[in-house]
Amino acid sequence: MTDLVVRRLLIDLATPFTSRWNGGDAFRSAFFNALSMSFPVGEQYFMDSVRNGLKILPASEQQKYAVEVQGFVGQEATHRRLHSLFNGHLAALGYTNEIERRSLRRLKSNAHRDVRIHVAATAATEHFTAVFANWMLRHPEALEGAEPRLQTLWLWHSAEESEHSCTAFDIYQAISGSHAWRIRIFRYITLVFLMDVLRQTLRNLWHDGSFFNWRTWLSGATFLFSGDGLIRGNYRAWRDYFSADFHPSQHDASKSVKWLSDNAAQFSVVGQPG
After folding, report:
1. Which of 84, 169, 173, 206 is the most buried (most CB within 10 A)?
2. Within a domain: 216
3. In whole angstroms, what is the distance from residue 264 CA to residue 259 CA?
4. Would residue 111 be called left, alpha or beta, if left means φ above 0 and alpha means ψ between -120 and 50 degrees?
5. What is the pLDDT of residue 60?
6. How many Cα atoms occupy the beta-carbon half-sphere of 200 within 13 Å?
7. Residue 3, pLDDT score
8. What is the pTM of this model?
C-alpha cells in the first residue's frame, strides 16, 4: 500500500498559451495536447472504477485499501480539474476534442460490464501513464522551451502518476481479477489508447496547419522512435505487464520521489493519508 498525498499545484492556468506552447515544436505540442484532451474523462473513469472496486471488497479488505484509494481519487481529481483548465485554452484556440467524445461513447457502451473489467482497464491505462511518466521525468527535454508553468504542470502530473501507479493494480488483485483477463484487457487498452492519441494528434496537427510540414514528422519520429524515444524506449517497460508476477512497484519510481522533493515549493499539501 502507498500513502498518497493530495497536492494543490501553485501555478497560473488562467493565462492563455499559444498553440505551439511546447518550445514552438508542432508535433510535441500536438501530442501533449492530445494527451491532455483525454485526461478529464479518463481520470473520472479511473476514480469511479477504483471506488467501485473498493465497494465490492469485504469490509475488512475495504479498510486495508480505503486510505490509499482516498489519496488516489484526490490526486486524480486534481489532475482532472487542471487539465480541464488546460483544455479550455485549447478549445479557445479552435481545437476539437474528438478523443473525449469517442471515449464517452465507448464508456457508455461498456458501462454494463463487470466491475473487474473496469478496474482491469484502469490498471492497464495506469501502467501506460506510469511508464510514460517515468520516461518524462528521465527526459525533461521533451518539454524544452515550454513556459515554466506548463513544464511544472506536466512534470508534476508525471510524478504523481508514477507515485500512484500501484493503486488500481492492487484493487484488481484484491477483487480476484484473473491474470488472463488482466492481459486481455491490457492488449485492448494498448490498441485503443495508442490509436486514440494518434488520431487526436493528427487532428491537432491539421488544425495547427503543420500536418504537411516535413519538420513536424522529423520531430515526431525523433520524439517517439529514437533510441530512447517515448515509444521505442519504453517497449520493455510496457512488456513487463504481461508477466504473471508483475507488480508496478517493480519499476523504479525514484525520479518521481526526487522531483516532488526538489519542487516542493511548486505545490501545497491539501490532503494527508488517514
Report:
1. 169
2. yes
3. 8
4. alpha
5. 85
6. 28
7. 78
8. 0.96
**Is there a domain that residue 258 lies in?**
yes
**In a domain? residue 15:** no
Q: Among 43, 22, 17, 42, which Cα is nearest to 32's? A: 22
Separation of alpha carbons 27 and 202, rounded Å: 9
Task: Considering only the C-alpha atoms of the chain, give the largest distance between any 2 of them, rounded to a whole number of Å.
Answer: 58
Q: Number of structural domains, the chain?
A: 1
Domain that residue 63 falls in? 23-264
Is the residue at 12 inside a domain? no
Q: What is the pLDDT of residues 71-86, one digit of tens each?
A: 999 999 999 999 999 9
Question: How many residues does the structure list for the chain?
Answer: 274
